[in-house]
Amino acid sequence: MRRYGKHTDEDDIRTRPGRRNTRPRTNIRPKHEDAAEGMVLTVDRGRLTVLVDDRIVMAMKARELGRKAAVVGDRVALVGDMSGKKDTLARIVRIEERTSVLRRTADDDDPFERVVVANADQLAIVTALADPEPRPRLIDRCLVAAFDGGLEPLLVLTKSDLAPPDELLELYGALDIPHVVTSREELETGGAADRVREQLDGRVTAFVGHSGVGKTTLVNALVAQDRRRSTGHVNAVTGRGRHTTTSALALPLPKMDGWVIDTPGLRSFGLAHIDPSRVINAFPDLQPGTEGCPRACSHDEPDCALDDWVAQGHADPARLYSLRRLLSTRERTEGD
Predict the structure, then answer these.
(1) Which end of the chain has fewer CB atoms within 10 angstroms, the N or the C?
(2) Contact at 8 Å (CB) between 203 and 178?
């Protein structure tokens, strides 16, 4: 079958250009200087909900960003349709530099770290005093991740009507971590929310906690009624809570300059990505004492200079104990 007519001419024949005749690709990318700025509120299967000024905009990540993914709390630059109308979609072309990151791995053998939240100022670690029982090792791991990622920790103890908080508070007393103790009755009357709210004004706070500790119930008490999320209960047989929050979500605090980020309930908190040498940065009273440490000192060795530093009265021995407990938490499971 002929592809061309009887009277063909060379100009009629389409030829494929050679490699040397093709237009070379360029590494120059548009700067998108007119892009709008926004904050990622939640991520769901490749679609991102972004707050742009006072509008909620749906967006997707631009191909040019490659493997770099935006997470809740990220400040991003967008182009495209930002009207916020139904069935419209903007494009995220840039992720701004992060001021802090909360990262975790699935377990201590997992080499792939996951950024849970970006640009948070504070990490509220929510722990029940009973039902379910507190897990100090999980708290330790959250503290290490907070110190490593540049977040200030806040300890929130719930269900104080079921057990006293004294023993747990004593365990973390040397770390000088601010804390709030609440009861179930106070959550219902709003008194607990008022005390927690005092710690949140003007800040972006990520809430983490084991399933069933009352984290989402507390978040619901802090935010507007139309922003509240569903809650679950603790299984009477296993003592574990049921996951009701499946994705991180940033929510504004009403009548306040602040945000809360509710994250899914934790079953584990891997620290494979943590460099132990960075944890000492959270202990400014101990940090000068490391100058005499041997190279690559783990700060839990017989010739560690921190022992002499504390013995000379430069720091409280309880602080050194707390540091070493946090550094060794990677070798223990959360349930220990």
Answers:
(1) N
(2) no
* SS3 per-residue string spanning the chain: CCCCCCCCCHHHCCCCCCHHHCCCCCCCCCCCCCCEEEEEEEEECCEEEEEECCEEEEEEECHHHCCCCCCCCCEEEEEECCCCCCCCCEEEEEECCCCCEEEEECCCCCCCCEEEEECCCEEEEEEECCCCCCCHHHHHHHHHHHHHHCCEEEEEEECCCCCCCHHHHHHCHHHCCCEEECCHHHHHHCHHHHHHHCCCCCCEEEEEEECCCCHHHHHHHHCCHHHCCCCCCECCCCCCECCCCCCCEEEECCCCCCEEEECCCECCCECCCCCHHHHHHHCCCCHHHHHHCCCCCCCCCCCCCHHHHHHCCCCCHHHHHHHHHHHHHHHCCCCC
Cα gap 211→241, rounded to integer Å: 4
Q: Would you state the torsion angle of the CA atoms of residues 69, 74, 76, 81, taken in this order, to the nearest 10 degrees?
A: 80
Please tell me the distance from the alpha carbon of residue 308 to that of residue 317, in angstroms, as a whole number: 11
Q: Kindly report the pTM of this predicted structure.
A: 0.80
Angle between helices 317-327 and 136-149 (to 10 degrees): 90
Q: CB–CB of 205/154 below 8 Å?
A: yes
CB 129 within 8 A of CB 165: yes
% residues pLDDT > 70 (the chain): 83
